[in-house]
Backbone:
């Protein structure tokens, strides 16, 4: 049991409860999304008290030093005084330069920031709308080749942000972004290794970034890209990928269409299994898996059992409130 | 006289063993359900700290922690046969890595000493 001071609120944590859980249990409207320590939407700042190491380990040094921490990963025995971060310190403004429809559900955004963002293709940024709503989107662009940040946004059935981006957000307008976040990106140390890239839906965005980064670094091992979508028209970068890899003999692109399967079937990841049927031995491979969380978790385990080392399996599960029907437990 | 942890190869030995060991328990249908989780990276890290402890390395495990951590699994039916299966996978992991038999014996003794706490006896 620890005492949490948040503005005028004096709260007690319960056994096994994160600071975020404590806030939510007391009906405090704290921002959060994935509750898994990934998206960093729940970042807060600690004014006094000793933070547990785990609550800061995913943050950059400069943020750590300023007492920032992830409330969903903060299980504390110590009393803490906490507040929401000053958003000016974290977020910068980005201007929408291009917006393009790629499929019936996916749009591509190209954004420009006043000062260039330092990032690896495949990492993600958090995007904040004027009313404070925050969602994460992966970077498909390559900092060494592109001046603009490229995001692929899929309209989710109940997605407040994705509907607004698809229908309302217009060229010339700006939005706040922060990041980059995440460790799902190409490492030039894997130059000779075979790469397996598996993505569903807009899980393709980080994979395209990773693929382009690998090509940019003259990756010499074979690269296999699997993109799973419900229908052919949702293979939204089909032509672009084919022309991108036209001159790269070591790159193999395998679109997987699952229109004859039920939605449940796809969500459990079976559509991506073809990647493992074709590559049953992943010893000494680098594996990247991005997209629907159930698919990512299923494929992560299968890739590990197929011989890939845990250190060589990189995942980006697109955790989001819209995808969940009930709150995740921690 | 060097410690068991030093003789077995320290952290490098843990890193070499953890993928092999975790893959074995996940592939064993009689116990895999105890290891399946939403967060594979966290589960992998747990196996790493378990191996570090079993190899005689630095750790802050207490019997009480062991009991508390495994209590939910005991409720789901964790019993001696499961414990023995995990121990068997530990032994065959070490054999696969050509660890000398006397050191394997020492590791198995440490692992075996956790049995009552793991099973909540």
Residues:
């Amino acid at each position: 049991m620890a005492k949490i001071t948040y503005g005028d609120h004096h709260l007690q944590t319960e056994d096994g409860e994160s600071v975020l859980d404590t806030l939510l249990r007391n009906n405090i409207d704290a921002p959060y999304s994935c509750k898994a320590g990934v998206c960093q939407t729940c970042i807060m700042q600690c004014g006094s008290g000793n933070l547990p190491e785990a609550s800061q380990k995913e943050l950059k040094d400069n943020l750590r030093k300023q007492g920032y921490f992830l409330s969903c990963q903060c299980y504390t025995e110590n009393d803490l005084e906490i507040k929401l971060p000053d958003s000016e310190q974290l977020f910068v403004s980005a201007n929408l330069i291009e917006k393009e429809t790629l499929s019936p559900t996916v749009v591509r955004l190209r954004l420009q920031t006043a000062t260039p963002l330092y990032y690896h293709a495949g990492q993600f940024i958090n995007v904040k709308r004027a009313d404070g709503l925050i969602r994460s989107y992966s970077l498909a662009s390559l900092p060494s080749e592109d001046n603009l940040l490229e995001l692929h946004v899929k309209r989710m059935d109940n997605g407040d942000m994705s509907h607004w981006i698809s229908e309302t957000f217009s060229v010339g307008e700006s939005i706040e972004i922060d990041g980059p976040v995440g460790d799902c990106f190409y490492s030039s140390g894997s130059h000779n290794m075979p790469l397996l890239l598996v993505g569903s839906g807009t899980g393709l965005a980080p994979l395209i970034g990773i693929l382009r980064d690998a090509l940019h670094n003259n990756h010499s091992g074979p690269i296999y890209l699997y993109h799973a979508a419900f229908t052919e028209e949702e293979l939204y970068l089909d032509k672009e990928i084919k022309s991108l890899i036209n001159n790269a003999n070591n790159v193999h692109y395998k679109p997987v269409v699952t229109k004859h399967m039920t939605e449940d079937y796809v969500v459990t990841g079976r559509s991506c299994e073809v990647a493992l049927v074709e590559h049953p031995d992943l010893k000494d491979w680098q594996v990247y898996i991005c997209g629907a969380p159930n698919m990512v978790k299923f494929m992560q385990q299968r890739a590990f059992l197929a011989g890939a080392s845990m250190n060589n399996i990189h995942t980006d599960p697109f955790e989001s409130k819209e995808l969940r029907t009930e709150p995740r437990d921690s | 006289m060097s410690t068991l942890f030093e003789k077995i190869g320290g952290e490098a030995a843990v890193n070499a063993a953890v993928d092999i060991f975790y893959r074995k328990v996940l592939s064993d249908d009689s116990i895999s359900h105890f290891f399946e989780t939403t967060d594979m990276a966290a589960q992998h890290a747990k196996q790493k700290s378990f191996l570090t402890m079993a190899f005689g390395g630095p750790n802050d495990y207490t019997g009480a922690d062991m009991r508390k951590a495994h209590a939910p699994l005991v409720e789901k039916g964790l019993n001696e046969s499961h414990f023995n299966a995990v121990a068997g996978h530990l032994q065959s992991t070490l054999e696969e890595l050509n660890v000398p038999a006397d050191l394997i014996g020492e590791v198995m003794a440490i692992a075996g000493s956790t049995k009552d706490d793991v099973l909540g006896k």
Chain A has three domains: 3-87, 88-181, 188-320. Chain A touches chain B at residues 36, 297, 300-301, 304-305, 307, 309-310, 328 (CB under 8 Å). The longest strand of chain A covers residues 92-101.
